[in-house]
Amino acid sequence: MRLAIGGGTARFDIEVYDSADVEVTGLVTGNFTKYLTIDGVTDAGTVTVTEIANGRYTVTFTAPAVTAGNVKYVRCRVLHATHAPRGFAEDFEVYNVNVLSGVTQTGDTYALANGANGFVATKVDTAAILVDTAVIGATGGGLTSLAQASVCTEARLAELDAANLPTDVAAVKSDTAAILVDTGTTLDGRIPAALVSGRMDASVGAVAADALTAAALAADAVTEIQAGLATAAALTTAAASAATAATKATLAADILEGDEEIDKTTDATQWQQVVYTKSTSTELVRKKLWKSDGTTKIASDDDIVGERTE
Q1: Nearest partner of 289 among 281, 280, 297, judged by Cα
Q2: Radius of gyration of the chain (CA)
Q3: Where a domain ends, among 43, 70, 103?
Q4: Is residue 248 part of a domain?
Q5: Which of 34, 66, 71, 256 could form a disulfide with 47 if both were Cys (CB 3.0 to 4.6 A apart)?
Q6: Exposure of 209 in the CB half-sphere (CA atoms within 13 A)
Q7: 202 located within any domain
């Protein structure tokens, strides 16, 4: 930092934070250790620290006097035993204002005037902008060079009004009327007049293939679909009934068409009638023979004559 003074008060600001990065307030100049050097030599000059607010403090010291043509380098440091001040050191170049009198500078002042972004370059750019903006309004240049057909002039608007614009507006009006008819009449006739429980109530005439999923069907819908259809239990019962009917039919055929004989040897005291399964020698039915009185056993040919079997 440069100080254009020949001796006097100089200052810079610091910020003090604790280990938790919170601003430290309420410190006074006696809480700091202060160092001041001039050209690398410790100086006994006074350094004071004054609180501004919110952990920010101003460090003030007395800069040395400088004679014309000379420059002194000053370094001021401020430390704290517990906290860490930020911006705790500042270096200064102290020079007398007379040093600049009548001297051509090649440093900061020269760059400000003659650098790439200095006053001279800015003046050149400003002149170019003035030229460009003047051309915009000049006849035959800038915006005025555009074809008149592409510019919204009064003449162009009159041309549109006389030729295309009325026709286009009429077409738009006709289309708008058709839209009003569709939305106000045709469309109204195709949608419900009111919602039912916040939903549109409609009858579906056809559903696309594979459109209904299992998740889309309610449980009672599945029950209604099954009503009147054969369930697994019904099919089992029907199969059992069919099997029973088949067994009975086979039994009837065996009884009616199977071979029969009178067994006289198994029990000599009472002969037995034996029926075999149709076309086999498998015994199907065996019955004991009685006379018509129901108590006398048939055991001879004489007993059979004029009798019936049970």
Answers
A1: 297
A2: 62
A3: 103
A4: no
A5: 34
A6: 0
A7: no
Please state the domain count of the chain. 2
Q: What is the pLDDT along the chain (310 residues), one digit of tens a residue?
A: 555 445 567 878 888 888 888 888 999 888 888 888 888 888 877 889 999 988 888 888 877 776 666 677 788 888 887 887 765 566 666 654 443 444 444 555 555 556 666 677 787 888 888 777 666 655 555 555 655 555 666 776 776 666 667 777 888 888 888 887 777 667 766 777 788 888 888 778 888 998 888 888 888 887 887 777 777 777 788 888 888 887 777 777 767 776 777 877 788 788 888 788 777 778 777 888 888 888 888 888 777 665 554 4
The answer to whether residue 169 sits within a structural domain is: no
Asked whether the beta carbons of 120 and 114 are under 8 A apart, the reply is: yes
- H helices present in the chain, as ranges: 108-114, 119-137, 154-162, 164-181, 219-226, 232-257, 301-304
Last residue of a domain, one of 72, 103, 134: 103
Contact 270, 299 (CB under 8 A): yes
pTM of the complete model? 0.31
**What domain range includes position 60?**
2-103
117's enclosing H/E stretch is none
**What's the sign of the alpha-carbon dihedral 178, 179, 183, 186?**
positive
Report the CATH number at residue 59: 2.60.40.10
